[in-house]
Amino acid sequence: MSLNIRPFRALRAKNHLVKKVIMPAFDNLNAEDISKIIKNSKWNFLNVISPEAFYPGISKKLSKKHSLDHLSAMINENIIFQEEKESFYIYKLEKYNKSQFGIVASIDINEKNPKILKHENTLEARCDRILRTTKNTNIQVGPVYFSHKSKTNLNSIYNRYKKIKPLYNFQTSGGTIHSLWQVNSDNDIKLIEINLKKINKLYIADGHHRFSSMEKLYTQYGNKNKTKKSIPLLSVIFDKNNINILSYNKVIKFKKWNYDQFILLLKKQFYKLEISTFKQPSKRGEVSIYCNNKWHNLNVRNNDTLKKSKKTDSEIIENLVLKNILLKKMKLKIVEKTHVPGKFGAQFLEEKVDLTIADVAFFICPMTMHEIMSVADAGKIVPPKSTFFDPKPIDGLVTLLMKE
Known about the structure:
This protein is of the alpha+beta class. It folds into 2 domains: 5-244 and 390-401, no CATH class; 248-365. 34% of the residues lie in helices and 26% in strands. The strands form 4 sheets. Strands 1, 4, 5, 6, 8, 9, 10, 11 and 12 form a 9-stranded mixed beta sheet that branches. It has a 6-stranded antiparallel beta sheet with strand order 15-17-16-19-14-18, sandwiched between helices. A hairpin with a 2-residue loop joins β16 (286-291) and β17. It is globular and about 65 Å long. The mean pLDDT is 90.
């Protein structure tokens, strides 16, 4: 079964209104983000995706009505419109002095998608929430973020289009610059299709819950309509060399924390432990641990068994340090455990510990895209919060209408 990646007739904002409708991925929104969105623009897609953010306690029936009414109002007020022609889109993300180019497209999916590989587990409740919104509105606001390792000649297309003024070019609060070009000429569409056909497998980088919810939707549609062969999935596809991955770090608060005992047991387990200033983990196995106002640097793969282990660094830390040392040997109880995206940096972790919000912080070496793909190829799954992709595509830039 081959991948069917194709152009589509997107819903998108008028160029000067794009910043009013876009929103960060809903799963990454906190109360402060939601408050800003509510204050800054009533036309934000959050009104469509989650009326509950505006009206806590709203019933499911009224929530669906609000979503549809607001979407209709956005179209009627000419805030968003649908393209006349099926198009691909070139999407550029800029951050950390690096640019990455990808293709926004629609991918046909069904209940069997052997060429689309996952690497993370999903939560049923989160998938169901996305599924409910999609069924209520018949749109997909946020893309599933894919990568691949096949050789294509898409760079030649990117190099040509980046010389043209984009439809959108703006910076979001996290420092990412987003640029988008529409590809609607028949020749360029054909050229992109030829290159996309060279892709043998797609790997989900971010958006496992979105993908799983669409698989569920296909199953539900298929039960009602036996002739339905697939449903479209809003996607953005980047080459593996274009992707930036950060670690998911950990900060933990315990009952009856004992620093001296922890360091003694840590040295027994890993032998080499260096106390110094912060050192950015750059190789597999390297981790920096902050506690008692000091950074402690070590390698959790300090023997042949662990060097060859297919477990991720996060899994090793979870099993050997957290479960074996802190919980089993020290008999501590966790008060609070938080996963912190690597974009917040070492100083953020220091502050959490220095303010006694946490007792210990772990700064972990991020997985590489090669490692993630190897895990997926082997049919295995890494624990949730193992990888953080930054920058990420933003929701609401282009939207896929599932039923026209």
